[in-house]
Design brief:
Blueprint lengths: L3 H15 L8 H8 L3 H13 L3 E4 L5 E4 L8 H9 L28 H16 L23 H13 L1
Antiparallel strand pairs: 1-2
Protein name: RrF2 family transcriptional regulator
Organism: Spirosoma soli
Keywords: DNA-binding
Amino acid sequence: MISKKAKYAIKALKVLTEEYGKGPVLISYISAKENIPKKFLEAILLELRNHGILQSQKGKGGGYLLRVDPGRVNLAQVLRVIDGPIAPTPCVSFNFYVKCDDCTDEITCALKPIMERVRDANLGVYENTTLLSFQNPTSIETKEIPIGAKAAELTEAASNRMSA
């Protein structure tokens, strides 16, 4: 489950994507439009700026704007900035790997392969969803994957999504 902070970050980025190319957007505008507490939003936008997703301009006519094209920013990037690891357990994280403290042997662990599949399924969606998806939400193709699907089926579903 993503945090409320991540959800607010995504909502704020949706507004900034809608306003992309039009100049800086005021925090108060984003806050009112998406019903995000202003102080909380300030901290979120500052964090996104510090990680190179946003830029800010001070003074009259100032505010926040996307630093890069919205087609180059995906949800995985945003979630990692705001929430950290995407993986459900630390032992399957690509960027934040840590051996699980209660695991005696990762090689024979029955849970690890399942958590790798969960990670891969989530990453397939997050990495293939850019901020541009907010401009036309009906264009986001989804395909239900049956419970118990094999890794090959998950890969096929992901490649079908990417080629569409």
